[in-house]
Amino acid sequence: MKIHLALLAAVAATAIAGSAMAAASLDQVVQKGAMADRIKEKNQINFATAKAIGDHCLNAAAAKGMGVSVVIVDQFGIVTYYVRGDGQGKTNTESALWKAKTTLNTRAPSKAQMNAVRSGATSEARVISFGNFANAGALPIVVDGQFLGAIGVGGMAATVPVWSDEICAHNALTAVLGTQPALLPDLPNPYAITPAAGAGARPPAAPQ
Question: Whole-model pTM?
Answer without folding.
Answer: 0.81
